[in-house]
Amino acid sequence: MEKNREKTEGQKKQEQLVYKKKNYFEQASEAERAKIFGYAEGYKEFLDAAKTEREACARSIEMAREKGFTEYAFGDPLKAGDKKYFVNRGKSIVVFRVGTKPLEEDGFRLIATHIDAPRVDIKQVPMYEDSGMCFLKTHYYGGIKKYQWTAIPLALHGAVMLKDGRKVELCIGEGEGDPVFYINDLLPHLGREQMAGAANKIIEGEQLNVVVGGLPYADEEVNDKIKLTVLSLLSEQYGICEEDFISAELCAVPAFRARDVGFDRALIGAYGHDDRVCSYPALTAVLDGESDHTVLAMLVDKEEIGSEGTTGIQCKVYEDLMEEIALALGANFRKVRAKSKCLSSDVTAAYDPNFPGVYEKLNSAVLSCGTAMCKFTGSGGKSGSNDATAEFVGEVRRMFDAEGVVWQTAELGKVDIGGGGTVAKYVAKLNIDTVDLGVPVISMHAPWELISKADLYSNYRAFLAFMK
Ligand code: MN
Ligand code: MN
Question: In CATH terms, is domain 19-117+271-467 a member of 2.40.290.10?
Answer without folding.
Answer: no
